[in-house]
UniProtKB/TrEMBL annotation:
The keyword GTP-binding applies. The lineage of its organism: Eukaryota, Metazoa, Ecdysozoa, Tardigrada, Eutardigrada. One of its GO terms (molecular function) is GTP binding. GO terms for biological process: signal transduction. This is small monomeric GTPase. Its EC number is 3.6.5.2. NCBIfam families: small_GTP. One of its GO terms (cellular component) is recycling endosome membrane.
Amino acid sequence: MREFKVVVLGSGGVGKSALTVQFVSGHFCEKYDPTIEDFYRKEIEVDQTRCILEILDTAGTEQFASMRDLYIKNGQGFVVVYSVTNRQTFQDIKIMKEQIMRVKGVDRVPLLLVGNKADLEHLREVPTGESLALAQLWDCPFMEASAKNRTNVNELFAEIVREMSIQPVEE
Ligand code: GDP
Ligand code: MG
């Protein structure tokens, strides 16, 4: 069975752990230790093909920038998360994307842009159209999601598998 290494990136508090735990364990984590950085494994079926996902839920607590470089180097696909309720987190992902591209040193990397906390419509700061424009610029898929309501959680992990499947990745 093919194995894919996915790295979940984004600023603190955007819901990286909530999305990962919701996907792997099927429940919403109201409070998850923000310093925990962990690997999860889950077998899933995408488009009639079973595969194993190894997911790194990052915490951004690395003491050295080189550690971040290392897990980017080891990652094959990247789920880049911001919160639709926090414009700053949308700015932050642009820097993270640059770092991914620099470390990978290739033109194209399997990547998915995710706007989490879509259930908090009344607190929205980032209009969907802006994210669509960014996704177009990056030439990558984009989804809004809610770890709380389990909206697009399975779908986003399926989508990054598709991205990794269609693009040549280093084994
Ligand atoms: P991380 O630092 O990116 O791992 O963020 P966490 O997963 O720890 O989430 C930070 C906070 O946002 C927690 O209080 C979560 O309960 C909350 N949260 C995460 N995802 C959602 C979501 O989709 N909707 C809502 N309403 N809250 C969320
Ligand atoms: Mg976390």
